From TrEMBL:
Compartmental location: Membrane
Phylogenetic lineage: Bacteria, Bacillati, Actinomycetota, Actinomycetes, Kitasatosporales
Pfam families on file: CitMHS (PF03600)
Membrane topology category: Multi-pass membrane protein
Annotated source species: Streptomyces wadayamensis
Region of interest (Disordered), ranges: 209-295
Domain Citrate transporter-like: 14-449
UniProt keyword annotations, A-Z: Membrane, Transmembrane, Transmembrane helix, Transport
UniProt-recorded name of the protein: Citrate:proton symporter
Length: 501
């Protein structure tokens, strides 16, 4: 009974958010509450919810102060040189832009914190996507998937949990997995390049110095373009660049007068955030296009090295685990605000500027606490795991590493990492041990699905990603799941071929 209710609850939740019948926040609260009552445990609902909130409260605090800390670092211009370097590499070429997004996300992910990766990557790349009219969903998909692969570093969480749950050394789990994970990361880069080429075909090759000589084609029913137009905010990878009312519009940019009948060029103005070439959409929303404004009043060039050293200290302390992560970001945010904006009025303005992100993400974390609290408290998770593991035939016992890798794909998407590694992985390891499969093989196989896990509705950091990019979570899910599953399968295949898992 609980097994069926668990699967139906998850299916109901995903259906409602992907069809946009309910928002993720309300779905995370109301759907589990309804199924808790149906399971006959309505009298314990408050208890389950408070347990879930207690478990996720540190995460909410961490995200709240991390958003403020990195928001201030963005305001004062710490990451502007990185953005300028990426702009020089990308040269307004959509293929390079998407590849640059994947590379940047992978590099920043070395700190082991998803929310940090998402804030830095989106802040650096979103203005460029907006100006080039590229699909923002492509950015969120590539960023989340690259971060998922890198999330397997020993200090990132999953590896440490697997080691703790099975009483193994994290290095013994991670180091042999490096070749397979490297292949997985290369597959993300290859995917980014392919999606970038698709964007290039949709938009054309644009340049900073003058109009392109290629033919720019916009096709409404082209897969990426069609999906993006329906689901992204105004001015984000949307609309025909020529104003044609027909489904397909083709324009050859041959000179300054060739662009959209406006007398301009086919080249978006990369020096002016918020402009989108000839789309006529007007300025981007506050906080998007203004990130690179060289004259914004919040810049603190004289404090650049202080801010760089403070950020480095925060990341080193985070990786070394010298303090709990929420405490690190609380102190970091307080120092950043005090030094960069010494007057109370300035501090209030900076906090207010990032209040929307803080409220949205914190709200989503506590809403997710209801979902995880009910799923765990009612026993649904445990029953679902027993059912799936019990369905594995004895003849497949020697292949438990492969089975663990495959099962990790749905389990890490529908469960928190804590629930999966402390609740499910020990069961799989015990079943494998009965057939001569070592716990190390099970632990390595359990890391396979992290590229998909980072887009799970139960991962608080993903709401930082979609919130800052201003896309719907359901749209991000549709754009990401198939590619993230593919990358996970690539890692699994590489691990099996290399004899790692």
């Amino acid at each position: 009974m609980l097994t069926v209710l668990g699967f139906v609850m998850i299916a109901t939740f995903l259906t409602l958010i992907m069809t946009k019948k309910m928002s993720p926040m309300t779905s995370l609260i109301l759907i589990p509450a309804l199924f808790c009552v149906i399971a006959g445990q309505g009298s314990h609902l408050g208890e389950y919810v408070l347990e879930g909130i207690g478990e996720l409260a540190p995460t909410a605090a961490m995200l709240m102060f991390a958003i403020i800390f990195f928001g201030v670092m963005i305001d004062v211009g710490l990451f502007d040189p990185i953005v300028r370097g990426i702009l020089r590499f990308c040269k307004a070429d959509p293929a390079r832009v998407v590849l640059g997004t994947a590379v940047l996300a992978a590099i920043v992910s070395l700190d082991g914190d998803g929310s940090t990766t998402f804030m830095i990557t989106v802040s650096a790349m979103l203005p460029l996507y907006l100006r080039l009219k590229m699909s923002v969903l492509t950015m969120t998909m590539v960023t989340a998937t690259a971060n998922g692969v890198m999330n397997t570093v020993p200090w990132g969480g999953p590896t440490a949990r697997a080691a703790t749950a099975l009483k193994l050394d994290a290095g013994d789990i991670f180091v042999p997995m490096v070749p397979a994970l490297a292949i997985g990361l290369l597959s993300v880069f290859a995917l980014a390049w392919i999606l970038g080429l698709r964007e290039r075909r949709r938009l054309g090759l644009l340049t900073e110095s003058g109009p392109a000589s290629d033919t720019v084609t916009t096709t409404e029913d082209e897969e990426a373009g069609a999906e993006t137009r329906d689901r992204t905010p105004a001015g984000v990878g949307a609309g025909s660049r020529t104003g044609s009312a027909g489904p397909t519009a083709t324009r050859t940019a041959t000179g300054p007068a060739a662009a959209s009948g406006s007398g301009g060029t086919a080249t978006p103005d990369l020096a002016k955030p918020g402009t989108g070439g000839d789309s006529g959409d007007g300025p981007a929303e506050d906080g998007e296009g203004g990130t690179l404004d060289p004259n914004r009043p919040t810049l603190r060039p004289k404090l650049f090295w202080f801010n760089a050293l403070l950020t480095l200290a925060v990341l080193v302390t985070l990786v070394a685990q010298l303090l709990p992560i929420p405490v690190i970001f609380m102190f970091g945010a307080a120092l950043a605000l005090t030094v960069n904006f010494p007057h109370m009025k300035q501090q209030r303005e900076r906090i207010a500027a990032h209040a929307d992100n803080v409220l949205n993400v914190s709200g989503m974390v506590f809403a997710a606490a209801v979902f995880t609290g009910v799923l765990t408290g009612t026993g649904m998770v445990e029953e679902m795991a027993k059912t799936l593991v019990g369905a594995v035939p004895d003849s497949l016992g020697p292949h438990m590493a492969l089975i663990t890798g495959l099962l990790s794909i749905p389990f890490t998407y529908f469960m928190s990492n804590d629930g999966f590694y402390f609740g499910i992985v020990p069961i799989l390891a015990e079943a494998g041990a009965q057939h001569g499969v070592s716990p190390l093989e099970i632990a390595r196989a359990s890391l396979i699905a992290q590229p998909l896990h980072m887009s799970s509705p139960l991962v608080p950091a993903v709401y930082v990603l979609v919130g800052m990019a201003k896309v719907e979570f359901g749209d991000h899910t549709r754009a990401t799941v198939k590619w993230a599953v593919m990358v996970s399968l690539v890692i699994l295949a590489a691990a099996l071929l290399l004899g790692i898992a």
